[in-house]
Each structure stands twice: as C-alpha cells, then as structure tokens.
Amino acid sequence: MKKNKQKELKINRRELLAGSASLGAIAFSSKVAYSKETNLDNLPPNVPEWTGELGEGVDANPYGMPSEFENNVIRRNVEWLTASTESSVNFTPIQDLEGIVTPNGLCFERHHGGVSIINPKDYRLMINGLVDREMIFTLDDLKRFPQTNKFYFLECAANGGMEWKGSQLNGCQYTFGMVHNVQYTGVKLSDLILETGLKPKAKWVLAEGSDSSGMTRSIPIEKILDDCMIAWAMNGEALRSEQGYPARLVVPGWEGNMWVKWLRRLEFGDMPYMTREETSKYTDLLPDGKARMFTWVMDAKSVVTSPSPEKSILYRGIQQLRGLAWSGRGKIKRVDVSLDGGKNWQTAKLHDPVMSKSLARFTLPFEWNGQELLVQSRAIDETNYVQPTIHELQKLRGVNSIYHNNSIATWKVNKDGTVDNVRLG
Amino acid sequence: MFALVKKSLIFFVLLFIPNLIIADERKFNLGKIATKTEIAGWDIDVRPDGLGAPLGSGNAIKGEEVYAEQCASCHGDFGEGIDRWPELVGGEDSLDTHDPVKTTGSYWPYASTMYDYIYRAMPFGVAQSLTYDETYQVVAYLLYMNEIIDEDFVLNNKNIGKIKMPNVKGFLIPDPRPDIANVNGNPCMQNCNSSTKIIGKARDIDVTPEEEKS
C-alpha cells in the first residue's frame, strides 16, 4: 500500500517536472505548485521519494537557478512610487539573504530609461575634455589594463526615503532594500588616465551613460583618482544588463546614482556640470527651503534583517538575530543591538570579512518567550560616526530631504511573533 | 651661423621635445585617438556657463507647439504633470513649506540643465530625437510658463548660460555632514534616554504591496 502511494507520488513528481520543462524558461518564475506542508512519508524511518529515483543529469540547467522552494526570494517594487517601470526602482530581498554577498539576480534595480541591451562589440568608452589625448576604448581594451577586484556596497541615496515623515512601508525589503554588495572586477580610473593623460585644470569628471536617460553625474577628480573604477564583472561573471552591462562606473561609498551604468563617456572639465540628477534630484531640501547639494557619501547605517516585518519569530526559545551594516566612510567598527527600543544595548558579533565600504554581517543570539520587543541596531564606523535616530536627523534636516535617511529603524515584535515597522517618539 | 643653428637646436630641444615626450607617454598603448567628429556626436552636455550649447535658437511661441506635441501627454498642457509624471511649472514659495513643489521654475538652478536634460533624455522613450532648435523652443516655453522670460524672447546658445533662474541661490555646498552630534564612537549603552512610545505603525498606513497568495 505504502509502496504504491510512493510510486504514485513519484509519477506525480515526474509529470510535474516534465510539465515544468515544457514551460521552459518561465517555469521558475511561475509559482510551482509544490506543497508547503511537510510530507510525513519523506521523514524517518521512510525512504524519501527523491532517494528512490534518479535526479536530473548534468546540463539539465546549463545556467543554474535557485531551488524552486526559494521562489519567494525575489526583487520587489512598490508600484505606486513611480509613473512607469522604466523609470523606477525595485528592492533587494535583504531579509532572505545571508553573509555579505548579494547574488547578481537579486541586486536591486534603479533605471531612469529602462534596461539598455548592448552588444559588447558595439561598446565604446569615450574620454574627452581636459586630457592630453581624447580617446576611445573598446571593452577588450579595458580588459587589458591592470585589473582590480573589490567588494563594495552600492546604496541608493533614497533608500529609506519613504520613512522621513513616519513608518510607511511594512517591510525590511521596502525600507532598506535599495542596497547591494558584490565583488567588482574592473580597471581603476587612475590607471586608465595614464593612457589619456590629464590636464592640470581638470577638476571634475562628467560620467555619462548610453541608456535612454543618458544618465549623467559630475564627480570631483580627487574621488576619481582615489578609488573609482570601471567594472565589467560582478561576483565573478559579466555585469547583468540591469546593472549596466557591459561596463559601469563604481564610486565606492558614494550614492548609487553616481555609479553610471552602460557608461559611454567620461569628460574632464574645470567645473561641475550641474546635471538634472545633481540639481533637481539628489539634493536634500531643508526646512528653510534651501537644499544641500553634492551630498555624496553614504553615512553609516545598519538594519536587523531577521526578525523583521517579513521575518516573524516562529518558535520560542533561542533566536539568531541577523543584520547588515555599512558605511561609505570606511569599515564598520561595531554594531550594537537593542531589544527594548534603545534603552539598553549590547554589542553584536561582526563576522569576517569586514571590509571598507562593503556590507558587514552581524548576529546576536537572544531568547524569546512571547514577550513584545522593540528591536533596533546601531552601526559605528571606523571614523567613530554613530548611526543616528530619525529624531536627530529630523531636527537638523526636517522631513523633506528624501535622500540620506540613515537613521535607526525599530521593528516591534508582537506577542504572536509577527513584526511591525514602527516609529518611536 | 653654426652657433645659431646650435642655439636653435637647443631651443627646439628645450621647448618642443618635452611636449612630444608627454604626448607619446601612453603607458599601455591601448585604445585609439578619438576624432573630432566622433566626439561631436557624443559630447552633448551643456554646462551652466553655456559651454557645450549647440548652435541654435527658439522662442516660447514656437515652443508651445513642440511642447503640445511632444511633452503635454505626460507633463500636462500647462506643465502641471499628469498622474505621477513630473510637474514642470509653478511651486514658487513652496520650498520651505510642508509640501514643497519642486519644478523647473521653483527649484532648478540653471536653464542649461533644462536644455541638457531635455535634449539627452526627452521625450521619454524617444531620447535625443529633438533638433537643437526644438530643444531651445521647449526650454523657452517652460521658462515662459514659469514667468522667467517673455514669450518672444529668443533663447540661443549665446544666452542660455545667462538666464537667471529664481532658485539659483537655493543650494548649499559643501556637504556639512557628519552633521549629527555623536561622532565620538561612544554612545550610551545602559538606561539610555530613549522614548519607547509608539507614535506610528506602517501597518496602519496600509500602503505596503500585498503578496500574491499562492
């Protein structure tokens, strides 16, 4: 009887697999009807269904995808935020990720004119303006320069921008997910300009994308020569199209908007270009009607990714709190965690590697027995900057800055283990 | 005679050779020299001082036609913005209020930025399709609707760097951060003065996208 049942299950599974295969590429993205319940027949002492049959052979998936049971770990957007998906943003599911590396397919997207698809054979980088030689490079040219490999976080300046006036979105992904962290491979601009030369009057660089928005930002020469690079690879493989394939600018520690994707041109000049993105956008409006301009650095920030609004506490007893911390000014030195809304703090464990201008992972074990908690985390970076509260920021900047909200968030753990994004005051 | 030649040679060596050496100092010998034509096609940016503005001109009267055809479907007939597409006109005296309205007239500090952005990125989805004259016309129309120029004012490459925008002095540099008090790495750890009263809950606002139930 039991054998028969197992056989039946096997057939069903095969049919399901065959069905998925015929659906081809969309099989993964569609919600496959795998049971969310535990099948007791697969538990000891029984022989699990997958043991009694052969699995797929090599090359069944020439490019491997995550397990179908993880199909909830995806980027998500907030439709009402923007007028069109081509000029919009989605969010990294940081609440579902471990360690510090963001998988390429989960890195949040921010486009201003959709994703450009560029044949690498048609890629050209132009360098003009105040250089000794105005030049054009192919992608192959760029790859023949000395290479650098570095982990950096990229955070949108508007990450958490919806939370200035109060708690608005009930999700870790929606309030902190405009950040990702990958290892870039590319050429440092300080090496690239050895080829073009640089005129003494060159103080600013205009970086320009070739996408439909022609994205442009001005960057001071000191930053360009310090640690900026042109990357063609992330996490070991070519850039994803949505991250600027075949080449993007990397501006470590500075706001994501400056990391121009689909980079086509660098112009060296003697003053900033005052592009739309650095005047009408990415300027921080203060209560007196004046706006801060050229606020490039992403200040120290941290977030508890679990428990969080998407990550309820499911069991009483021991818990492993997890979170991420980062700073555009260097390395994270310490992260403190409070379970009582900021009255008492304990220092979390920071996990190796802790790198400059990269996400850092922290954890802290704690006991939960059904009591309400107000969970917070507070990052301190190597410059001794302490992540502020929202009230500290509001006192200085009001509530209409949009950008650079790096304040401490509060997750309220309810008695049933569910978690809410709340504002204390 | 010989002395003169020798002197000229020295002169040549001193003045010209160093330049030649610099010009040939390509470390890796990668890439190619860009031609003027190649640069002209891609170097489309326009700076606040007008540098880069291409030869052309236009006024608001002509701009109204181009705007109606190319821009109004998203930005509205009067720049009021349709749905969530940006408002382009109005918003004066709103920047220090609870609900600031940031438009080309109330917020943008330079007319050059309007030219630069409209030419490179607009109309949305048909970027870099306007002619130089059409771009000047649309910018002139927006400046006219924001009461910055008259309707017959002819905007061109010579005067675009001289338009005075109302909010040109509205921006603060350099960045004053870190602007918060605690930059000594030593925050309170025990019995800290922190309010634990809940004054807002995202769940109550109810704007979070719902998960599809599978």
In CATH's first tier, which class of the largest domain in chain A applies?
Answer: Alpha Beta
By DSSP, the count of extended strands of chain A is 24
Helices and strands of chain A: which structural class? alpha+beta
Percent in helix of chain B: 25-40%
- Quote the beta fraction of chain A: 25-35%
Give the total of beta strands of chain B.
5
CATH topology name of the largest domain in chain A: Sulfite Oxidase, Chain A, domain 2
The poorly predicted ranges of chain A are 1-32
Number of helices of chain A: 8
Mean of residue pLDDT values of chain A: 93
Q: What name does CATH use for the topology of one domain in chain B?
A: Cytochrome Bc1 Complex, Chain D, domain 2
Shape of chain A: globular
Task: List the main descriptive attributes of the protein structure presented here.
heterodimer; A: 425 residues; Sulfite Oxidase, Chain A, domain 2; Immunoglobulin-like; 3 domains; 5-stranded mixed sheet; globular; B: 214 residues; mainly alpha; two-stranded antiparallel ribbon; 5 strands; 34% helix; extended
